[in-house]
Amino acid sequence: NDAKVLDSLAVTQDNFRFALNNIKPGALRAAFVEKSTVHLEDIGGLEDAKRELLEFISNPLEYAQEFFELDVTPLRTVLLIGPPGCAEARGDDTTDSMIYHLMSEMDRIDSREDVFIIGATNRPDLIDSAILRPGRFNQLIYISMPDETSRVAILKGALRNSLVAKNVDLNSLAKTTTGFSGADLHEISRRAGRFAIRESIAKKKRQSHVRMARNWDQSDLKPEICREHFEAVLKLTRRSVSDNDLRKYEIFFAQILQQPQVLCTQLRFPHQEQPSQGGSGEYK
């Protein structure tokens, strides 16, 4: 009877579909997928980098006809490079098999519609040169340290849900934090908030031992981030990226851009007569 049951079994196409939907490739079992809740408008500053990213994704979608008419394959991959706290990268020990799987997928990305890969790293010196060749991460964007205007935007974003006292001048704070990364500014804001909470808790403990007046305003005990909290934090805070390290990133990025380039400074098209009727005449 058991033999008859085994002989009657057969693997069908539906069985393969079920298996494909429930089995994860071995090279990706150490990875995880996280749906981000952060939008571009939540990121302070970096206007040029955000504009490039938007064009990278939106142009092939909104102007697909132009790409089709010129038979141009749109870029599907981009790599963000920058110091720690600017181009954030999350990961652990990456295996050779995972790198091989990533490159294999990137080689096939041009044939897929509406698929984009955005990578980020603060260790460009460890990147396998094969990943940077044309057809893979051939579009690089350098995420620089935020300038003063960007620092104001970052601080506003970091404090948008916090109760901030009127004596806090974010423009002055941005001037004081020259050379600080976006991650540094977020940490400064968080630590100032913790100082405010600590102060509020201490006030509540003191008031619990004092008989409160009938008209006592409890709003005085609500935690509020004041200028003094930021001043206390800045005395204990240092930049995460030194000027020397920053120069190394800028030099390294410039070298990456120069490596694949062969400058054709002597290129000249042969002289052409006036375009015949029907030509656009736009280029002469």
Task: List the SSEs and their pairings.
Layout (H helix, E strand, L loop, with lengths): L1 H7 L4 H10 L24 H16 L1 H6 L7 E5 L14 H12 L9 E5 L18 E3 L5 H11 L11 H7 L5 H27 L18 H9 L7 H16 L26
Parallel strand pairs: 1-2, 1-3
Helix pairs in contact: 6-7, 6-8, 8-9
Based on the model shown, name its key terms:
284 residues, Rossmann fold, three-stranded parallel β-sheet, extended
Task: Provide a descriptive summary of the structure in words.
This protein is mainly alpha-helical. It folds into two domains: 33-144, Rossmann fold (3-Layer(aba) Sandwich), CATH 3.40.50; 148-240, Helicase, Ruva Protein, domain 3 (Orthogonal Bundle), CATH 1.10.8.60. The protein has helices spanning 2-8, 13-22, 47-62, 64-69, 96-107, 148-158, 170-176, 182-208, 227-235, 243-258, and strands spanning 77-81, 117-121, 140-142. Helix 5 links the parallel strand 1 (77-81) and strand 2 (117-121).
